[in-house]
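User: Predict the structure for this protein chain, please.
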Amino acid sequence: MSRLSNKIAIVTGAGSGFGAAIARAYIKEGARVVLADLNLAAAKEVAAGLGDNASAVACDVSRADQVQAMVRHCVDRFGVPDVVVNNAGTTHRNQSMLEVDEETFDRVFAVNVKSIYHMTRAVVPLMKEKKDGVIINIGSVGGIRPRPGLTWYNSSKGAVKVMTKSMAVELAPDGIRVNLISPVMAPTGLLQDFMGVADTAENRARFVSTIPLGRMCDPSDVANAALFLASPEAKFLTGVEMPVDGGRSI
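Assistant: Here is the predicted structure, written as structure tokens:
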């Protein structure tokens, strides 16, 4: 039997990068998946290659009304979600903390932190009724071992880290597991902002040199971790922080 047979999942930021890889892995293992993304065209493109068990929906995760509408879409199309992956995220450019304007700061926290508040309020009551559920938040190695230049982004992921652990304790009596995946830098759409310099082979090599296993994170690395944490094999794991970082946070 596939590891996620008969499971229903929501993956945010599923139009590209980690989210798209997680959606593909979940579909492959038997789940039905709602792919939510600010970029509906991108989500539809990913979903089109995944068949009838995938459904794309537009969603700005910083907006409570859109998150609620997206969850209703899931319930109407597939049923109550068993698994939610809060993957959608954004960053500011790698630069002095004093150069990040307030609008950008607010957007980073709205997308990376407040989105989980909105999602929790939308899905946890449904999961509580079933006494079962899995929530996976996507953090960052920057929330474990922060470095200069991404201070406000790192701080948002630090908030997600504490939020995950607190949610895990509070929701455990309801059979809801909450875990965190913290990746290192990956060749996704945010890479150039994370580096703060041009995306060249030379600049990539400089960042890769800080990762003991000698390469950036691949979206499939995060997808494999998200598949495990959603699966029955992880049924006794909650509040876990899983660095997917090639040793970067050591």
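Residues 8-235 form a domain with the Rossmann fold fold (CATH 3.40.50.720).
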